[in-house]
Amino acid sequence: AQEDKVYQSSNNGLNWVSFPLINMDRFFYNKYTNQVYAINFNKLYVSNDFGITWGLLFEDTFGFEKEKELEVSSNGFIYIGAQAYFWKLDTNGNLILRTEFTSGASSIVDIALEPNGTLYASKNLLSYYSLNNGDTWSKIPPTGSVQNNFYTISAISSGSVFGHKLTGSLYQSDNLSNW
């Protein structure tokens, strides 16, 4: 079907060209290497020419849910959050680390990366941070009586991190201790 293909425009959307990559769940751009990544339920593809050609970079079971997260760091790591796991790869697709966050595959591992390199992960309303590229994780500390168990988590270029709770509340922090 036409809607399952990958399309690229080089003139602000006036014209579109399709490419032979189908059934992808998400696309991500690596601003450090100018690579484009496409991920589906079991494959991560990479393009070094802005989507004209694609090569298989890494293969594992990422899950059938469309919600997959991918972050890239300035020091050459690719981080993937999907189903129950967090993956850390180098830019050549070599697996460095695969970590399970709580058992069960009932929800997605949501990840975020601050410009300073601090990584965040949230799954099943349990929220973590890592100061060493995902090698070890600690729970995000509570703020007073408020537990920082976020449903989703995001970081922006200014260094602020946002945690979204299932209740609809949105929390913001610049230093992990004050939300």
Q: What secondary-structure arrangement, pairings included, does this model have?
A:
Blueprint: E1 5-8, E2 17-22, E3 26-30, E4 35-39, E5 43-47, E6 55-59, E7 69-72, E8 77-82, E9 85-90, E10 95-100, E11 110-113, E12 119-123, E13 126-130, E14 138-139, E15 152-155, E16 161-164, E17 170-173
Antiparallel strand pairs: 1-2, 3-4, 4-5, 5-6, 7-8, 8-9, 9-10, 11-12, 12-13, 13-14, 15-16, 16-17
- Estimate the helix proportion, in percent: under 10%
| Outline | globular
Order of helices and strands: EEEEEEEEEEEEEEEEE
Radius of gyration: 17 Å
What integer is the average pLDDT?
84
What percent of residues are in strands?
35-45%
Q: Regarding quaternary structure, how should these chains be classified?
A: single chain
Unreliable segments of 5+ consecutive residues:
none
The secondary structure category is mainly beta
What is the number of helical segments per DSSP (H or I, 4+ residues)?
0
Kindly summarize this structure in a few lines.
The chain is mainly β and 179 residues long.
What can you see in these coordinates?
- The chain is mainly β.
- Helix content is 0%, strand content 45%.
- The protein is built from no helices and 17 strands.
- The strands form five sheets. A four-stranded antiparallel beta sheet has the order 3-4-5-6, with no helix packed on it. Strands 7-8-9-10 form a four-stranded antiparallel beta sheet, with no helix packed on it.
- Strand 16 and strand 17 (170-173) form a beta hairpin.
- The mean pLDDT is 84.
